[in-house]
Amino acid sequence: MRRLVTSIVLALLAVGVGGVAASGVAVAGDRPGGAFPENIPLPNGWRPEGIAIGRGTNFYVGSLADGAVWHGDLATGKGSVLVPGTPGTAKTGMKVDRGNRLWACGAGGGDATVYDAAKGKVLAHYTFATAPTFVNDVVVTPRAAFFTDSQRPVLYVVPLGHDGRLPAQSAVRTLALTGPAADAGAFNNGIVSTDRGSGPAGGRLVVVQSRTGRLVSIDPRTGASAVVDLGVYSGLNGDGLVLRGQTLHVVRNQNNLVAVIRLTPAADKGTLLRELTSPLLRVPATAALFGPFLYLADARFDTPPTPTTDYNVVRLRT
Predict the structure, then answer these.
(1) Which CATH number fits domain 2-317: 3.40.50.720, 2.130.10.10, 3.40.630.30, 3.40.50.300?
(2) Which pairs count as long-range contacts for 197-206, CB under 8 Å and 24+ apart, including other chains?
(3) pLDDT at 35
(4) Higher-confidence position of 280 and 29
(5) Is 312 helix (H, G, I), strand (E, B) or coil?
(6) Rounded to whole angstroms, what are the CA distances from 30 to 18, 19, 36?
């Protein structure tokens, strides 16, 4: 369904045009009257971190303020609360899987929740750890969902059953990391997978370390890791990751840009292709792709949050 809708709207999306700044950094832009809004406002005080795009033009943004989930339409920018917030909770990384289920990380709660992306109904809830913990991001493969913990050298693994069936809590396991992915204080953050379900062994996991600026490639079976060779490039302040084919998008939050990197098939090396930015970016945290556009949640980590602080989602041409 999503592929069909995406194909239909690509012609409309093509009204956006890109420019290049004098510095050589690509800057997103649009002609007046473009079909989809370039800047989508969120409710004041929302404090977004994770963003996901589901079927059709549906998108979802979690809240650090109270763990609520906003459900909007990329075509109109309109939306409403899908999951009401609960004081003392937070949402970080999010993904929508092939079954239209929304996976949402619980940050310092050490947990994750799976929702029906259409209705907001809770389908499953998994507990991983107690403090100190910060469940930050998730990737869902044909075999399992993998979660990073920015406070611990582990990944949490939720194996999927036949046809993606959700397991019981007892099936959840903790995968200990070794090598550079286990370095203390590295702050493992965004995660993607090269697994396309083409073989029994699966692919590699790639995680960005916010404080070291490194990408690390991880074996999802053993937890062994190695640094992805980026040459002289640093992904410092790396946050959300988005992978399409072998093209990796690295959101560098405090730098207000997205690094576009070409990975080798083995995910052992990466080459910087370009950097994307926009005057609309205000410390973006995570991103999601729709057609030729990247949508980013502006977390505004450099601004003290208040109930009246404004937040938004920004569209960039890739």
Answers:
(1) 2.130.10.10
(2) 197/141, 197/142, 197/143, 202/141, 202/143, 203/141, 203/267, 204/266, 204/267, 205/139, 205/146, 205/155, 206/241, 206/243, 206/248, 206/263, 206/267
(3) 81
(4) 280
(5) strand
(6) 7, 9, 10
